[in-house]
Amino acid sequence: MLKNARWALWKNPEHLTERQREQLAWIAKTNPALHRAWALEEGLRTVFAIAKRSPIEAAEALDRWISWARRCRLAGLAMNRAAPPAARGWLTCGQSSANRIPCRVASRVT
Questions:
Q1: CA dihedral sign, ordered 92, 97, 98, 102
Q2: Nearest to 48 by CA among 96, 94, 11
Q3: What are the Cα distances from residue 81, in Å, to 1, 77, 85, 97?
Q4: What is the pLDDT of residues 16-69, one digit of tens each?
Q5: Residue 65: other Cβ atoms inside 10 A
Q6: Which of 13, 21, 73, 103 could make an SS bond with 93 (beta carbons 3.0 to 4.6 A apart)?
Q7: Would you kindly state where each structural domain of the chain is located, as residue ranges?
Q8: Contact (Cβ atoms closer than 8 angstroms) between residue 34 and residue 27
Q9: 8 Å CB contact between 35 and 105
Q10: Cα 3 from Cα 56, distance rounded (Å)
Q11: 79-110 pLDDT tens trace
Protein backbone atom coordinates (compact mmCIF):
# COMPACT_ATOMS: atom_id res chain seq x y z
CA MET A 1 0.00 0.00 0.00
CA LEU A 2 2.88 2.39 0.71
CA LYS A 3 4.09 2.12 -2.89
CA ASN A 4 0.69 3.32 -4.15
CA ALA A 5 0.62 6.17 -1.62
CA ARG A 6 3.52 8.13 -3.07
CA TRP A 7 1.20 10.44 -5.05
CA ALA A 8 -0.59 11.33 -1.82
CA LEU A 9 2.79 12.31 -0.33
CA TRP A 10 3.83 14.36 -3.36
CA LYS A 11 0.66 16.35 -4.04
CA ASN A 12 -0.39 19.58 -2.36
CA PRO A 13 -2.88 18.71 0.40
CA GLU A 14 -5.61 20.83 -1.20
CA HIS A 15 -5.38 18.74 -4.40
CA LEU A 16 -5.67 15.31 -2.79
CA THR A 17 -8.46 12.95 -3.77
CA GLU A 18 -10.52 11.22 -1.10
CA ARG A 19 -8.56 8.01 -1.67
CA GLN A 20 -5.26 9.86 -1.22
CA ARG A 21 -6.54 11.41 2.02
CA GLU A 22 -7.33 7.88 3.22
CA GLN A 23 -3.81 6.79 2.25
CA LEU A 24 -2.31 9.65 4.30
CA ALA A 25 -4.45 8.61 7.27
CA TRP A 26 -3.19 5.05 6.83
CA ILE A 27 0.42 6.29 6.70
CA ALA A 28 -0.14 8.31 9.88
CA LYS A 29 -1.25 5.13 11.68
CA THR A 30 1.29 2.70 10.26
CA ASN A 31 4.38 4.84 9.68
CA PRO A 32 4.43 7.86 12.02
CA ALA A 33 7.98 8.87 11.03
CA LEU A 34 7.04 9.12 7.35
CA HIS A 35 3.91 11.10 8.23
CA ARG A 36 5.98 13.44 10.41
CA ALA A 37 8.42 13.98 7.53
CA TRP A 38 5.49 14.74 5.20
CA ALA A 39 4.06 17.20 7.73
CA LEU A 40 7.46 18.92 8.05
CA GLU A 41 7.71 19.24 4.28
CA GLU A 42 4.20 20.71 4.08
CA GLY A 43 5.06 23.10 6.90
CA LEU A 44 8.09 24.33 4.99
CA ARG A 45 5.96 24.71 1.87
CA THR A 46 3.70 26.96 3.95
CA VAL A 47 6.67 29.05 5.05
CA PHE A 48 7.56 29.70 1.39
CA ALA A 49 3.94 30.59 0.62
CA ILE A 50 3.98 33.10 3.48
CA ALA A 51 7.27 34.52 2.16
CA LYS A 52 5.52 35.56 -1.06
CA ARG A 53 3.18 37.76 1.00
CA SER A 54 5.36 38.97 3.85
CA PRO A 55 9.05 38.17 4.43
CA ILE A 56 8.78 39.36 8.05
CA GLU A 57 5.96 36.92 8.83
CA ALA A 58 7.85 34.24 6.93
CA ALA A 59 10.94 34.73 9.11
CA GLU A 60 8.78 34.14 12.20
CA ALA A 61 7.14 31.12 10.56
CA LEU A 62 10.57 29.77 9.60
CA ASP A 63 11.79 30.11 13.18
CA ARG A 64 8.74 28.11 14.36
CA TRP A 65 9.33 25.50 11.64
CA ILE A 66 13.01 25.11 12.57
CA SER A 67 12.06 24.71 16.22
CA TRP A 68 9.56 22.01 15.23
CA ALA A 69 12.08 20.28 12.96
CA ARG A 70 14.65 20.14 15.77
CA ARG A 71 12.14 18.32 17.97
CA CYS A 72 10.78 15.97 15.30
CA ARG A 73 13.01 12.98 16.18
CA LEU A 74 13.62 11.93 12.57
CA ALA A 75 16.90 10.09 12.19
CA GLY A 76 17.80 11.53 8.79
CA LEU A 77 17.15 15.16 9.73
CA ALA A 78 20.00 16.96 11.49
CA MET A 79 19.30 20.56 12.46
CA ASN A 80 22.19 22.83 13.36
CA ARG A 81 21.71 25.48 16.05
CA ALA A 82 23.08 28.08 13.60
CA ALA A 83 20.35 27.35 11.04
CA PRO A 84 17.83 30.18 11.67
CA PRO A 85 19.95 33.20 10.62
CA ALA A 86 21.39 31.36 7.63
CA ALA A 87 18.02 29.95 6.63
CA ARG A 88 16.37 33.37 6.43
CA GLY A 89 18.20 33.96 3.15
CA TRP A 90 16.03 31.24 1.60
CA LEU A 91 12.97 33.41 2.04
CA THR A 92 14.12 35.95 -0.53
CA CYS A 93 14.74 33.34 -3.23
CA GLY A 94 12.84 34.30 -6.37
CA GLN A 95 11.47 37.61 -5.03
CA SER A 96 13.45 40.04 -7.15
CA SER A 97 12.50 40.56 -10.79
CA ALA A 98 16.06 39.71 -11.84
CA ASN A 99 15.96 36.39 -9.98
CA ARG A 100 13.07 34.19 -11.17
CA ILE A 101 14.64 30.90 -10.15
CA PRO A 102 12.07 28.72 -8.36
CA CYS A 103 12.97 27.45 -4.90
CA ARG A 104 12.86 23.73 -4.26
CA VAL A 105 13.25 21.77 -1.07
CA ALA A 106 14.58 18.23 -1.10
CA SER A 107 13.67 15.97 1.77
CA ARG A 108 14.70 12.43 2.60
CA VAL A 109 13.79 10.13 5.45
CA THR A 110 16.22 7.38 6.33
A1: positive
A2: 94
A3: 37, 13, 10, 32
A4: 999 999 999 999 999 998 999 999 999 999 999 999 999 889 999 999 998 888
A5: 18
A6: 103
A7: 1-30, 32-110
A8: yes
A9: no
A10: 39
A11: 655 445 545 555 555 444 443 334 444 443 43
Q: How far apart are CA 109 and CA 58, in angstroms?
A: 25
Please give the Cα distance from 13 to 16 (Å, whole number): 5
**CA distances in angstroms from 101 to 10, 93, 108, listed in the order given:** 21, 7, 22
Half-sphere exposure of 75 (CA within 13 A, CB side): 5
| Sign for the pseudo-dihedral over CA of 74, 89, 54, 105 | negative
